[in-house]
Here is the input.
Amino acid sequence: MPIVALDQSITRDVALSRADSFFRAHEIAPVGARTAVRFHGNDSLRTFVELAGGGHDSLNALVRGRDVAPFFWTVRAFAPNDPREARVDFAPDGRVIGFDHKLAESDSRPTVTADSGRRLADGALGSWISDRGDRRKLVTSSYETRKTSGRIDRTYTFERTDRTVGGAPIRMDVIIGGDAPIRVRSYVEIPESFRRTYGEMRSANELLSLIASLGILAVAIGGVVFLSRGAKEKRVRWRAPLFVGTVIGVLALAAGLNEVPGSWFGYDTAMSPLSFQALIALSAMATAALTALLAGFTLAAAEVAKRQA
Here is the structure.
């Protein structure tokens, strides 16, 4: 029962190759950078379209179109001990839909006027991500002065004039860091009224979740009672439950180690790579041990309760 029919035109390797070309063409990746890739989606946009923007059919139409990408690839280029990094976003059909060139706070660049910054922003939208200029208008602009370097970062927000999503405008933020584009981000400006309504829905769901947690606690207490009573009477059959729990723990460990390559997408460059890898490995082992114990003791308690019943 698929929720969305998604047509992928690029693979992970293709995304990495195109990202490398993009980084080299615009010279925004740090020296000696390594890359990490992730395929993810915009949950807020999907929720808005499904609940207030026309439902599943509208979401499928949005996925098939070229206006906004609810799902996309992101490739990150980074280097340990370097705050500078770069990211580029690709739609499933391979189009560049955004990028982010993170500078260090101490990086200073020449200052441009507001009009020159606007021309640079138009150029970034027109050549870096191939967005047509005749279908957007400037709605707001601002600037921020970095305290350490004195660099002036100017932000220009554009809005599509030919298309909305569920009545919400499609906008593009372009940031000019000094005299060069450092960020382009396309998004749907979700109405505040929907955010409040959805927040009320979530609060009701969270209440039900709390009630369910109390039920889980009651079941857990019952399991502890049966297990302790059975252990005192030497009626607990430990071997099979602990064997099954160990198997589940080993599989959980394998799953955790399998996620190590993707975990580099969230790597903090202030941490050494060795420490990061050790932290990920320890986390996987701790999760596996906890899963094995939880599964083993749960099965042992359930087996005792079953025989007593």
